[in-house]
Design a protein that fits this description.
The structure is a homodimer. Chain A is mainly α. The first copy, chain A, has a single domain, classed as Farnesyl Diphosphate Synthase (Orthogonal Bundle), CATH 1.10.600.10. Helix content of chain A is about 70%, strand content about 0%. Chain A has helices at about 10-15, 20-30, 40-50, 55-65, 75-95, 110, 115-135, 140-160, 170-195, 200-225, 240, 245-255, 260-270, 275-285, 290-310, 315-330, and strands spanning about 100, 105. In chain A, strand 1 and strand 2 (about 105) form a beta hairpin. In chain A, helix 8 runs antiparallel to helix 9 (about 170-195). The longest helix of chain A has 26 residues, at about 170-195. Chain A is globular, with a radius of gyration of 20 Å. Chains A and B meet through helix 5, helix 7 and helix 8 of A and helix 5, helix 7 and helix 8 of B. Chains A, B: InterPro entries: Isoprenoid_synthase_dom_sf (IPR008949), Polyprenyl_synt (IPR000092), Polyprenyl_synt_CS (IPR033749). Chains A, B: Belongs to the FPP/GGPP synthase family. Chains A, B: Keywords: Magnesium, Metal-binding, Transferase.
Chain lengths: ~325, ~325
Amino acid sequence: MGVNENVLKPLDRLASTLSAEMDAVNALIRKRMSSRHAPRIPEVTAHLIEAGGKRLRPMLTLAAAKMLDYPGEYHIHLAATVEFIHTATLLHDDVVDESRQRRGRPTANLLWDNKSSVLVGDYLFARSFQLMVEPGNLRTLEILANASATIAEGEVLQLTAAQDLATDENVYLQVVRGKTAALFSAATEVGGVIAGAPAEQVQALFDYGDALGIAFQIVDDLLDYGGATETIGKNIGDDFRERKLTLPVIKAVAKADAEERAFWSRVIEAGDQRDGDLEHALTLLARHGAMEAARADALDWAGRAKSALSTLPKHPIREMLSDLTDFVVSRVA
Amino acid sequence: MGVNENVLKPLDRLASTLSAEMDAVNALIRKRMSSRHAPRIPEVTAHLIEAGGKRLRPMLTLAAAKMLDYPGEYHIHLAATVEFIHTATLLHDDVVDESRQRRGRPTANLLWDNKSSVLVGDYLFARSFQLMVEPGNLRTLEILANASATIAEGEVLQLTAAQDLATDENVYLQVVRGKTAALFSAATEVGGVIAGAPAEQVQALFDYGDALGIAFQIVDDLLDYGGATETIGKNIGDDFRERKLTLPVIKAVAKADAEERAFWSRVIEAGDQRDGDLEHALTLLARHGAMEAARADALDWAGRAKSALSTLPKHPIREMLSDLTDFVVSRVA
């Protein structure tokens, strides 16, 4: 997903509140990422899963279920499912993007090969489906199966849309809903469904996850053009070099004159990049206020995420989810 | 899976008996392989799905359900699910094997690129899970999710085992159960489960699919070394050039003297292949009766498939499934 999860304080508070459940999720993940027959599988999965991502997505599932006083244990399965889907998509993304680094470490496709990343990703997808069947809840199955399809569809759409200057903000939103927000919203929604929440609360959880995911991705787009000074474990200009039409660029292209348009066409569509092009791109983004406009969008989506929470019962976790939203956008505020 | 489905007469009789159901399966496949947002998806899936595979696997599901007088309609969903899983694995296999031809046509990874094949494969996997959720039957969900995990595990195992002379017939069987037989046995088993068959009939259907799948793969291995004179749409020696340790080679390696072992090590393990090596490999296979021994194994598995059928009720479809088994091995008899 190309998303950096450098969200510190509020996520730490969530992690502390949910530590018993997260331990259970981590134990289940370790158990299910093994393989009786193929030792390559735990090698690759351990490299990625033990690399210490923040586990934001499974935590959203646990938070939703706990906030609604779910007394059972299947939120553990659902949270592990969400992390498995996320990990599988990371493996395949790194193949598709030909990435060499993830979370500051070499990618699996670099350490092993593309074949291992493709097939171990498939294994994790299949394991995620095994996990999600276990609670025996058809509605959560449906939500997670639908999210998987939306993710894959968003990734394919990005393949063709990312290097096409005709891509507008509507297409961008479809891509982002697929590649990032679909798993956020499924994570929160299944937490509510397994807790037996009424329809309007389930909808509020979906809306929260959807808006948070979109804000999260816009922030990631901004950080890639130096939207913050903090260390983010990813180099400035990665998206530029990968010719990805992210939100700041889409906004700058929309305001480009003929000469600027020719520049974007050369570097993004034709992929002909030369020394100084990244600096020139940054100048164009600044000239048209594209960073500020994208930042305003991120804040707007964060606001929508927080309003969605108002439908949910008052609970310390609800406040943490609200703070988490502020924190996500504070990285570019 | 690298399996050629050139099974003519008995499959045609099955297809004719099940033609109304197969039409429904094909309509459902076409409907579900589409995408509202990403036009690349139907382009790629149409290329593969419309290429005219024999649809053997979905037909096994329909056959099992119909033989057991299933009155409902969900065997259509399950059969389409099976074909989607199969198609997704073909897309990923062709990336992993760097294949350039499939069913006599250029592969999707060649026509588009590896990225499209990986991501569209993921989309088809996700669509298969959406489809399999719809019947609302947890047992069929479990069987198909387990089969998906077994398939991926078999593929990963093949990655490491295929070019390692230490791979013996036990490991070979694990790989084949994964990459081929797991989907055959799941296809027949879910047909029985959805029909509400008693446990011993469901087990018999599993055993039939498992043994048929293994016989099928061994025959495919044999054909790759020229086990038959008929046109098979695949070149003789493909497995050799791809350095795959298939059953005839495993048998020849087991009987190899030091010099022969050095040859196999060079061409399979080291991948150093020269002019005349394929001919020399064929000589070694003949010297140790490896083709005949593999053929005997195929016949043995075909026999097991046919005995499994005896537990099932007498029915014209049961006879067709028996004839189908004979036909599969007749290609190398």
